[in-house]
Amino acid sequence: MNAIKGSLILFIIGLFCHTASPKTKQEVLQEKVHQLMEWSNRRTVIQMGGSKFANYVKSKPRNYSVIVMFTALNPKRGCSVCQEASDEFTILANSYRFSPAYSNSLFFGVVDFDDGQDIFRTLGLNSAPAFIHFPAKGKRKAVDTYDIQRYGFHADNIAKWMAERTEIVVRIFRPPNYMGTVVLVLLFSLAGGLLYVRRNSLDFFYNKTFWGVLSIFIVLGMTSGQMWNHIRGPPYYHRNPQNGAIHYIHGSSQGQLVAETHLVMLINAAIVVGFALLSEVHNPEMEVSKRRVFAIGGLVMVVFFFSLLISVFRRKYQSYPYSLLIR
Amino acid sequence: MGRMAFLKMSADKQDTLLKMLVLAVCCILSFSVRLFSVLRFESVIHEFDPYFNYRTTRYLAEKGFYDFHNWFDDTAWYPLGRIIGGTIYPGLMVTAAAFYNVLHYFNITIDIRNMCVFLAPMFSSFTTIVTYHLTKQLSNSGAGLVAAAFMSVVPGYISRSVAGSYDNEGIAIFCMLFTYTLWIKSVKTGSVFWAVLCSVAYFYMVSSWGGYVFLINLIPIHVLACIVTGRYSHKIYVAYTTVYSVGTILSMQISFVGFQPVQTSEHMGALGVFGLCQIVSFINFLCARLSSAHFAILWQTMLYIVGTIFIGAVGFLTLSGKIAPWTGRFYSLLDPSYAKNNIPIIASVSEHQPTTWSSFYFDLQMLVFMFPVGLYVCFKNLKDYNLFIILYGVTSMYFAAVMVRLMLVLAPVMCILAGIGVNHVLTTYMKNLDSVAQKDKKGRTKSDNSYPMRNEVATGVVVMMTIFLSLFASHSVWVTSEAYSSPSIVLSARGGDGGRIIFDDFREAYYWLRHNTPENSKVMSWWDYGYQITAMANRTILVDNNTWNNTHISRVGQAMASTEDKAYEIMRELDVDYVLVIFGGLTGYSSDDINKFLWMVRIGGSTDRGAHIKESDYYTPSGEFRVDSEGSQVLQNCMMYKMCYYRFGQVYTEQNKPTGYDRVRNAEIGNKDFELDVLDEAYTTEHWIVRIYKVKDLDNRGNPRT
Coil, strand or helix: which one is B527? Predict the structure, then answer.
């Protein structure tokens, strides 16, 4: 016990001695690598603020290279590709971490715009995400900035670039995505189970109303641009940064906001319901008293909502010459 | 007198006459609404691809079918050439040439160019008639007339079939609807005759457009849906087996299609359903012949055997690596966002964009909500053949939402279903209009079907529909005139006094090339203009819009993006005599070569020999693409920059602006005074949109040019 204590004291003294004396280059380097290894073992992609970046990436001496992703993950920055790029980057970093090529000569880091705006400024970056390689020796060249426009941010492509820059070849290991398979199997077993349970009365399967409602729903979804939303991922609404005014309708016909598509879907649905009411009026099973309500209600709905649809369209397409009731 | 004669006719005859009148008006309307560009400009072929079609049609009309089929074109893709006969869908050219020959046989000496220009409007008239027949098969002739009227002016279809847009889609929509009509007819009758006619129509469709794949998947889906919902019958069996077997054999006669119908995965669905039909029919046969106990035993044994074989086969193929059904790629086909994430070049093409709601409204207007109404009516009265139009509607809806160009496939079914919907509303309420008169005759018998203010409501509905329909017609004409009627080969702009200014520089330049250069000279330009140069200037080109050889295009991109000495080497290597660039800086024409230049850099740098070309060199340090004095030096000394801005530094373009002010980039150019060492300016058009340079020969003493 005493022996341990003694050695601990000795160690502490030794530590103090070290810090007191001016550190040799070698020792600083060792310390830096040690620290980076520790962080890297905890989390492969090291989060870097201003000081960390300056100490471990910017300043010499270094005998290791660092690949840093500059990004803006904060949702209020509205960078939708940043998250996807970050996922790919993490896949690359993890593939490296668990590959035989793993060593203390290459580290991965990430700098978020909100943590280090001045880093972005000094490096002259004005778009995110960006991947930059900081080589161990020599100056950073133009090719050390990954050309994201050209190659995209697929992990395989970043790995290829990394192999060119650092001569460390990593095979990308993606956690296999069995999501599709699982969903499909689940869906099939659910459908099969349902069919099995109700094998004696398969009426619901031949139920016209079910299929009719389903297909009308698909059509309304598609015509209101939900597929565009799925592919492009626009924000729900747009807030003007200057005066804080909230816009629900995109000002040009090239784009759209989610709120606006929902509105259009509702309008279209209302018009269809209006027409359905008009058509149900002549159903012989209906009570006479309801007919007038249905007929007039349907008529008013159709006219009003169609006028609304045109006026929403006019907001997007300013030179559109037609309008009905509502301007 | 005429009025008397009309009244004397029987009700049937009057009915037929009215229908024919309405249809004739629709046909004339659909033809004439597509003529905006002809009236505004003149009878010219539009854009890029139509020029290739026009050129091949001219060749076909002059030389005959066999020469056309065996045509090896040595004026494109110099020095590689292109086999034209085997790499195109010949339906369009054959159709135009056939019309041309027939008219000439009757001594109507129409020019082949006019034949090409007016083919698409003519076929849209035919489409109107076919739409009437198809909708009549599905519902009734009233709906058919409404659908035909919709079809004649729907902007989604007009966008691809205005006069001068001489492209496959112009006739393919006619072929598609014609095939559908005959398919419905054969399902209804179950006769081999109609089925064979249907497969002939399918053959015509295959010969004219690659989009036939949609058709050969839709028909099997219809059959499958009929089997699943218990609507399967001998009629469907006869129709489908005939259409599939005859249609497949016929489609394989097109040399561009070849063996694809039996090899590629997109045709396998049709084959699978064909097999399924045989199995289902065989089971029905056994079921009728065997006692139920025997049948149950047989059924179970068969099920086990087939199941084992199937699982075994899938397992074997998976293990041997022939198929890979469990990878992410397999599902990505179903997920439209896959392309966006992984293939940037697909995401960058404007035709491959998904569709916003406003472009649905722009192209279809009231059909957007009359379509679900039509679906509602179809579901209320479900038949075997209604099922088809529902499936067509929902599937094409999905495709149109994923890719904006597929709006073309959606537009017809929109018209048909909206026609059914409008007809349903109008017929129910039209009857009510004269309810007062009916009551007088029939007394109280109809009163239980009535309600207060019935007549007023009916009037309201009819007036409303009238307003909606006239709004649709005005909207369509407005859209056609605003958005879909510019030929893009002749440009127009509004002048300061509000008048129209015409820029005819493209044709000026191409005709200059045709008349002033040696016949065997080779012209280098970016690939966009390849088809136009071969068709109009009749000169050999290096790359064209059929972008099949990436390395060749890349080499041209390298020449454009390099400095003069490097470019000279490449141009000598490619044996170029003239270089043609499109420049909009003087007029403000924004889709010029400087704006496309980054693509040349990207494509140029994408191959091994262009490794020295890096996109970042063409940007300013802060990542901007600028042509003024702050722009990158590499950009200001590259071939494309020099060719576009040669002598531009001495020109005043706008008031209060210095010389050399580029009106597209809104900047004063950075490199004004330079001379070209390896090129001579050969020709520049009136508004400087097209500039042609001659490549200098080697120096007599072999000194370098630069």
Answer: helix
